[in-house]
Specification:
Layout lengths: L1 H20 L3 E7 L5 H11 L5 E7 L4 H9 L2 E6 L8 H9 L8 E5 L16 E7 L6 H4 L1 H5 L3 E5 L11 H11 L4 E4 L8 H17 L1
Parallel strand pairs: 1-4, 1-5, 2-3, 2-4, 5-6, 6-7
Helix pairs in contact: 1-4, 2-3, 2-8
The protein binds guanosine-5'-triphosphate and magnesium ion (MG).
């Protein structure tokens, strides 16, 4: 396991360098099945018009999500992991090699729906976001601490379902803060669009900082 992770880390470092060489901001979204990862990407693609976005879609099977991304207006690169519960850096590299990186501003990567395995495998993206949603319950940071500790951002999705759920948002954000005090936090709803503007602004700012560095 140590060897596998070591090889993956080396490949992730190469991906990171390749992204830096082309001024591409990359963000990896990790979260349980159905938390809304693809819905977030659709919303961002539809709303964030200033940047050229490309998407890598990681799934165990099907190209359903890649088709949704293309319908939303961005080029998508599907990776079917053939049963594996996470993406790894070499898979992402193979997708990057097929992509016009020089013509890409923002690379969004949807990891396989899972809160455990993806946390162990760096992909080379500058930011990893863990996505959690109201119906999953407010205890997810406690139960899946590695996912929250190793992420630079947290997105809490499906805010529109708060009236129908006993979800304690204060408890959720407290737990997140204890695990990773520096993570940037967004509370959003893909159904109503709440919080999407703030997320798009943050992505734009990060991209500007990258290109002005
Ligand atoms: N009520 C509500 N439903 C949402 C929201 N965001 C997404 N959904 C719904 O949640 C379901 C799953 O959304 P997806 O975007 O496919 O979730 P995912 O995380 O990409 O799922 P996997 O790719 O299977 O891991 C869909 O039925 C969405 O319409 C939201 O903000 N509020
Ligand atoms: Mg999806």
């Amino acid at each position: 396991m140590t060897n596998i992770l070591g090889d993956n880390d080396a490949a992730a470092q190469q991906n990171r360098q390749l992204l830096a060489d082309h001024n591409v901001l990359a963000v990896d979204l990790m979260g349980s099945p159905g938390c809304g990862k693809t819905s977030i990407l659709e919303r961002v693609i539809q709303q964030l018009k200033g940047l050229t976005i490309r998407v890598i879609e990681g799934d165990v099977a099907t190209a359903n999500d890649a088709e949704r991304i293309e319908a939303a207006g961005a080029e998508a690169f599907q990776i079917n992991t053939g049963g594996m519960c996470h993406l790894n850096a070499p898979m992402v590299r193979r997708a990057m090699d097929k992509m016009d990186l020089a013509g890409t501003d923002l690379l969004l990567i949807e990891n396989v729906g899972n809160l455990v395995c993806p946390a162990a495998f760096k992909l080379g993206a500058q930011y990893r976001f863990v996505v959690s949603s109201i119906p999953e319950g407010d205890d997810k940071p406690e139960k899946y601490p590695v996912a929250f500790r190793t992420s630079q951002g947290v997105i809490l999705n499906k805010l529109d379902l708060i009236p129908h759920s006993p979800f304690d948002t204060e408890k959720f954000w407290d737990l997140c803060g204890q695990l990773q005090p520096h993570a940037v936090q967004f509370a959003i709803s893909c159904t109503t669009g709440a919080g999407i503007t703030e997320l798009c602004q943050w992505l734009t700012e990060q991209h500007s900082q990258l290109t002005s560095a």
